What we know:
This protein is of the alpha+beta class and 421 residues long.
Amino acid sequence: MSALFALVDCNNFYASCERLFQPRLRHRPVVVLSNNDGCIIARSNEAKELGIGMGDPYFKHKNFLRRHGVAVFSSNYALYGDLSWRVMTVLEQMEPAVEIYSIDEAFVRLPPLCGSTAAMQARQLKERVDTCVGIPVAVGLGRSKTLAKLAARIAKKKNLGVFDLEHCREQQALLAAVTVGDVWGVGRRSVKKLNLQGIYTALDLQKSDTQRIRRTFGLPMARTVVELGGTACLSLEKCPASRKSIVSSRSFRQPVTELRDLSEAVSSYISIAARKLRDQGLVATNLHVFLATSRFRSDIPRFSGSRMVSLEQSTSCTSTLIKAGVRTLKALYERGYPYNKAGVMLTGLCRSDICQQSLFAPKNTKQQAALMGALDQVNDRWGKDVVRYASSGLSRSWCMKQARKSPAYTTNWSELPMVRA
DNA sequence: TCTGGGGTCCTAGGACCC
DNA sequence: TCTGGGGTCCTAGGACCC
């Protein structure tokens, strides 16, 4: 008997968080809005029953929400982050193998258990989170992550709390009842293509030819097919890979045309991104600035572009980044466009304690070889990892190639030693 | 000078996820 | 009038270099 995956998924997470502090909203519909109160990004079950869609623009529903007595909240990410941490801590206290997948979901590996024991264990997880944090969760059990996701979906849909797809007799019938677009990893674009090939349900996809899917849709989709068949391709990642990019961007309430105003906006986004960078103990090598006009307006000129600047030295210093960012913005800016959105992205991220001592950005293959040589000497165990880590100032493709060459390559950076090149 | 292969860098965009 | 923000991975083409 092999191990089972459990997916613990918080129900309507943001809405549940708001409700936690206002119990009077218990049976009332609740929605939470995105930044700028632009879109609806979380809905309680009652709000879903009213027909409010995920991502719907707030302005279109404003009157409707008022008429139906829906409680509306602007988002409070600090609160959600804190409650998420509490939920994850409870899970980690109960089980040794937990992967925090997103702010409101975690995969848990359960040891091989017989049917009733697995469900019982899942129920204990659910009850503990409920008691200790007060956030309702659904738990799905399956032989792969994809099946666990599907099971959690069924648990929510049928209001079961816990659902074990592995020890369930009607597995095939249940898969046949799930449309293929509701399978984890199958997006809107692929649904159309799959339908053209006669694949409409999760069961159809499970029964399809893996090689053909691989050729038509690529590796990730082929993995989904195998996972649906009960073979785990995706493992539990206890230590999350380190960040590869940090983004800070916003849409404007009104179109912005002046460079001065855009500079102000970009500077403030850089401050936010640099703060995140420092909080995570990282430095960045590249800064991207991007600008775009509204994608919903056909009556005004369209523009969307980005520009990157490589920094002379990896840094997390706000003023250095702002100077570079404003220069880059000037190069990107074109007069006459009503810009609707701007943002910045930091890439070439590297842990600051390693980077400050060892990183120099090699300009050619000779320098690359020298860097690799120096870092390889650290020791066999860490060498390749450090190379990839310390070389984040290099191009992505070069790093990937180095990483692939190493069979022992891992993405677990948590115990990396300090290095001097 | 011509020729070609192999490689990187950059930009852009597609697809997926929460 | 108003339509989110933050991620990952992959692909492709043009410019450029050795």
